[in-house]
Amino acid sequence: MQDIIKQPRVSVVITTYNYERFIAAAIESVLGQTVRPDEIVVVDDGSTDGTAPVVARYAARGVRYIRQTNQGAGAARNRGIRETRGDLLAFLDADDRWRPDKLARQLAHLRRYPAAGLVTGGEWQVFGAARPPVRVRRRPARAARLYPRILIENLIGNPSLVLVRRACFARVGEFDEGLPLGQDWEMWIRIARAYRIGVVDAPLIDFTQHEDSLTAGKVVERHRSNRVIRRRYLGEVRPLTRRVYLWGAGQSMSCFYMAAALADQPYRHGSTLRLALLALALDPGYRTKEKVGLCVRAVLGPAVFARTRRALHRRAGGAAARPAPPAATPAESRYANVPARRRR
Fold first, then answer.
1. 274-293 pLDDT, tens digit each
2. How many Cβ atoms are within 10 Å of 304's Cβ, its own excluded?
3. Which end of the chain is less congested by CB atoms within 10 angstroms, N or C?
4. Which domain holds residue 40?
5. What is the separation, in whole angstroms, between the first and last Cα of the chain?
6. Distance between CA atoms of residues 300 and 307, nearest Å
């Protein structure tokens, strides 16, 4: 264990499917790390666009390209796990970008807290020019026990955030390719059940929100998949009172995220309000501020809610200054006007 902590080899697995528009910027964000990884592999899950020639330009800089028939994101990550040899594994979805100090911060965290099997952190959610980015914070943790609390919702975040010890996969297995959605959350549940989790108090990635992403618009499908995942693990939670609480809290967050997904859609304010109120009723003590805010947003409508929030901020003296997300890399700018292809 100590040898791994002192001199860990880091493998990066970048997964992509028809993301010619994004892949260069993703690779550049890995190559631009203040601590360079030992191995970078791009697993192309059967792209039919120009992804391959874009990745080929990075072969001289040590980026290895692997192509497989289209099997889904989980299968692509599993292929990356099997094709790499690092003691630590980091994943990156091709439409996301790492902050320059992501690996440095996570490696330092693992050195300081060797009991952690996985380390994650915060993120910037980037929506494009029409909407300002939103910072998502996660409560910092040295090496915390998140199980079974992680059954309420995905407390760790998407795969682009994590740095994981290879030993975790050897112990708990690979990503479940049979799940249509939520494969990452289900994996984090298994890891959190066996290992402690570290959380860095800093944004580590730019998480790109766009209509061509794998989960865009799949609100009902996500809700169904979440129920399958919770049922898989809730039965082992003891005592019964804790199991009942986790079920209610989990249903509350499913309603919350469904309401949030509908909040900006025209003529869906009634559905948004009903789901937000149900989320608040099922568990009024968890993330209360966000649930109440969503209820208010549903009543006022997104435009009035946004104007009201800005007015309150001005009255309070303005929002605290925050760092802007990194500027577009040359590679990202080059592909900014290339239309994205929709995932299957």
1. 999 999 999 999 999 999 99
2. 12
3. N
4. 2-213
5. 41
6. 10
Q: Give CA–CA dist 329/90, Å, rounded.
A: 21
pTM of the model: 0.87
Burial 139-166 (b: 16+ CB within 10 A, else e): eebebbebbbebbbbbbbbbbbbbbbbb
Angstrom distance (rounded) from CA 116 to CA 195: 6
Residue 280 tokens read as: 């608040």
| DSSP assignment string, 43-81 | EE-S--SSHHHHHHTTGGGTEEEEE-----HHHHHHHHH
Residues 14/42, Cβ–Cβ less than 8 Å: yes
Both 56 and 175 in one domain: the answer is: yes
Helix or strand holding residue 141 (H, E): strand 141-144
Q: Is residue 229 situated within a structural domain? A: no
Q: Which residues pair with 124 in a beta bridge?
A: 135, 206
Measured over the CA atoms of residue 264, residue 265, residue 269 and residue 275, the dihedral's sign is negative
> Over the stretch 73-128, which tens digit does the pLDDT of each residue have?
999 999 999 999 999 999 999 999 999 999 999 999 999 999 999 999 999 999 87
The torsion angle over the Cα atoms of residues 34, 323, 290 and 236, rounded to 10 degrees, is 10
Question: What tokens were used for 172?
Answer: 């708990």
Around Cβ 281, how many Cβ atoms within 10 Å? Answer: 12
CA R_g for the chain:
20
What are the structure tokens assigned to 132, written together?
């300002």
Residues in contact with 165: Cβ distance below 8 Å, sequence separation at least 6, in sequence order: 4, 87, 88, 89, 110, 117, 118, 195
- What is the 8-class DSSP label of residue 18? S
**Assigned domain for 187 exists:** yes
Residue with tokens 């399958």, as numbered in its chain: 228
Q: What is the DSSP string of 245-269?
A: HHHHHHHHHHHHHHHHHHTTSTT-H
> What size, in residues, is the chain?
344
Q: Rounded CA gap, 155 and 140, in Å?
A: 11
205 plus 277 within the same structural domain: no
* Phi–psi pair at 204, nearest 5 degrees: -110, -20
With contact defined as beta carbons under 8 Å apart, do 174 and 89 qualify?
A: no
